[in-house]
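# step 3/5: fold
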Amino acid sequence: MGLRLAARDLRKGAAACAVLGAAMLWGCPGDLEKQSEVVKLRVLAVQAEPAELIVDPAQPLPRTTLTALAVEPSSAPTAMEFALCTVQEAVPPPDVDCPGTQGIPLPSAGPTSAVLDLGDPRAIALALQLAQDGGVADGGALPPEGIPVLVGFRATAPAHMLPDGGPPGADGGDVQVFLGLTTVTARGPGAPPNQNPGIAALWMGDAGIEIAADGSTAAPASTTQRLTPVPAPGSKEPADGGVEALGYSFFATAGSISDLRSTDTTATGQPADTFVDWTTPGSAQQARLWVVVRDGRGGVGWIARSVQVTPPAGQ
């Protein structure tokens, strides 16, 4: 049985839905903090592995594991819920309750992971209902570019008591909540499956010192450090007669990042520098850094590092 998720409406809204999902994942903070600044619970990205759902009539319906990059500045334990949204519209309503009354809960695969299985009877029933509501004939093939399958998520963590005074949880409670949406592309067989890109290392400074995974790398306070992500081998795959363009997003718990995003390819197809400048905080502390890489086709990867910020010179 092939996938039937209201193909008529979803094909029309694929681009809009994908943009909405990406915007939700980048944070869309409700206050005035910079998007690159992590001062409360955030979900910076959601990775699907495999990155696409390939629906082949000759094979069982596919599944993928969703994993969230859920971060909290005080390292408080974070829990995730995922749900397949029963509302699969071009642009979901702002009050869509998914997870909730408009979501089918997905089975957990870990504290921040869940499994999306198109062979789940609940997913099949939803697909048939949406196809019927949309007037799509049973057995319709997926378009070559695929359709976005909308998934909602809910992250929770204890409210922290860092020097900024919070944040408190919802309604002043003791739990932080972050809600968002993401999409996973479902398509028929044909082109090679997209693979998630990765980041092999994060370099710091003009000399390109690799930031150690054990958090032992240091940088002086109140200095500007260049951050350069190094893609993992094979991250740039053939696409559309060329190769993928990789985009990067940068986040930190302290200091200031010059640009939220960078890309390795200009609008005219020329190579571009991917580094950004990070101004370290003015006092000694541990700063946590995250860089997310996206290939523009649904593939996602990331790296997490910590830097020991040392006292300013003369102290």
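# step 4/5: annotate
The helical segments are 7-25, 121-133.
# step 5/5: archive (pending)
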